[in-house]
Amino acid sequence: MKLEFRSLPPGEMERDPTQRDQFNNDEVELVEALVRESIQNSLDASTGGAVEVRFRFSVMEGKSATRAYEFLDTNELDKHLTLCGLSPVSDTRSVSILVIEDFGTTGLKGNWNSWDQGPFCDFWRRMGKSHKGGKSLGRWGLGKLVFSSSSSARTLVGLTIRDNDTSPLLMGQVVLKHHELADGTRIDSHGFYCDLDDGGMQLPSRDASRIAAFNDLFGLSRVKEPGLSVVIPFLRSDVDSNSALRAVVTNYFVPILFGRLVVQVDGARISAKNYGEVALSVANNDERLTATINFIDEINRIYKIAATLPLELPAGWARSQGDLIPDVDAVRTLFQGGQVCAFRAPLKLLRKDGTPVASHVDVYLKKADVDVDAMFVRRSIVLSAEKRYFRGKKTACAILAEDDGVAEFLADAENPAHTGCSASAERVVARWRAPRERLKEIRDLAQRLYSLLSVDVETIDKDALFDFFSVPSEDGARGGGAGGEKVDRPVMPKVSPTPTHYKVHSTDRGFAVVGDASAPPGLVVQVSVAYDLVRGDPFAKHHPSDFDLRVGSILVESDSADFTPKTAFTGIITSKGGAFRVEFSGFDMNRDIAVLAEVKS
């Protein structure tokens, strides 16, 4: 099994892997992305029970390092690294490695000697495409780049045993960029440690002696158990054991505490039984992380005790203009008293074909002594970039999207690194109706709840202004009345306002004109809307490039009334009699909206 790079035929397009920055940026460090991708793939391949993932860091020196150079064909590897502007590795005296192994999984199933849509081909032979769907944690087919990115030589080697085939399969990959040899031969970006068939297709080795030598050289735990073992040689210095352990604790607390996952990092075993103990040792007196871990422990206890299931929000919570919470004062008192407040918000999602999907998300809120990052969890993975949508001060917050429907919806909206969501992502637009509105509802929910609960509980104190407005009596005591002639207050006539029969309400997505039950049939209300300005008349200065009511750039939904657009920024609402609602959405919510609604005869 040698390192083989394919030459590109004349005219074939060059396809360099350009997405490495997705996995090492301000939102997620490389070691965190590596831990997330490894565990995510393993959970997706679960056989149904608990999955165990092991991370082992080590350094090979002396004879073992020499054997590693031979196995990795470093003379050939160095030639391609140099042509791509990377440092050769043969000059190093030691080989830092990371071994990642999973158990309780299916292994990389599918055809190994031909093309199909199975996991083996997805992992080794595809880039930017995945056949995962439904409840799977991964979608893009780019995540595996993080394995080669963690190696200074852009190299990984993998051994898999499938649960339907006990023959081990050994294969490796070097992910560089397109380059040219001295004779002008164009070389593909991907090289393989492999055997070749007669047609030049890269095949895994099935040679028992070679596989045994690989296991012995890199110290694999796998004997005959199904699963995947990945070796990353020439490990980058910024990928280390302590950072990996911290990434496990902060990103995968849900599957660990719910008994779906066990993780080992250099012998430190993290399970549901000892998660709190290990996590607090990782926190090492970090106030923010300690507060987060204690909050996670409380969420876990609430989740497992039926008597404290989350408070169910009303079905219409997403459009509600009033309190989302029944008996809000009682819940507010609990929150102000430092209790965890848990809520379940029902969701109604619509697939592109119109099929409704009933689902829900859970929100947990608790006052904290320090500012902590909000946790947005889609099934078993923390979407770290989504924390920016919660702005509560000194409040621990967790949004758990565990239910199948919302988990699938969010997975389709996620970016390749699984750190955040986009309503314009190709998959979510192709598979779901109104993804922008649904995603905004989910993102804004925790902030809306916090805004309700963080208001101080109202109490009546009759003596609150006593010292300001009391008047001394003649004997020096408080409470005496002022002297002077008594003057009776004039009787003011009562003025009855002209009934308008409607009000304008702001919404999370725009605004709504809402009529009351007394609205007569045929009531005509002219609505004008524009983005507000610091100076000048916003309606006079409105431009159709901002939005145009006539061409549907703004979504208008009406109930018991008709809406007819007249200009780019005006339209007519005609009531059918009684209560009605006309809602306008799709505006740029980073800009203020000016609305004028007036009755027309």
Query: Quick one: biggest sheet?
Result: 11 strands, mixed
Radius of gyration: 32 Å
Which regions contain 5 or more consecutive residues with pLDDT less than 50? 18-27, 128-142, 477-482
Helix content: 10-25%
Count up the helices: 15
What is the overall silhouette?
A: elongated
CA(first)-CA(last) distance: 86 Å
Class inferred from helices and paired strands:
alpha+beta
* Beta strands, count: 25
Strand content: 25-35%
Walk me through the structure:
The protein has 601 residues and is of the alpha+beta class. Helix content is 25%, strand content 27%. The protein contains 15 helices and 25 strands. It has helices at 30-44, 62-71, 74-83, 119-125, 145-149, 208-218, 241-251, 253-257, 275-283, 287-304, 328-336, 404-413, 426-431, 435-453, 466-469, and strands spanning 2-7, 51-61, 94-103, 155-162, 165-175, 179-180, 186-196, 202-203, 227-233, 261-265, 268-270, 311-312, 341-350, 356-367, 375-378, 381-382, 395-401, 502-506, 510-515, 524-531, 555-559, 561-565, 570-575, 580-585, 593-599. Strands 1, 2, 3, 4, 5, 6, 7, 8, 9, 10 and 11 form an 11-stranded mixed β-sheet that branches. It has a 6-stranded mixed β-sheet with strand order 12-13-14-17-15-16, sandwiched between helices. A 4-stranded antiparallel β-sheet has the order 18-19-24-21, with no helix packed on it. The termini are far apart. The relative contact order is 0.09. Residues 18-27, 128-142 and 477-482 have low confidence and may be disordered.
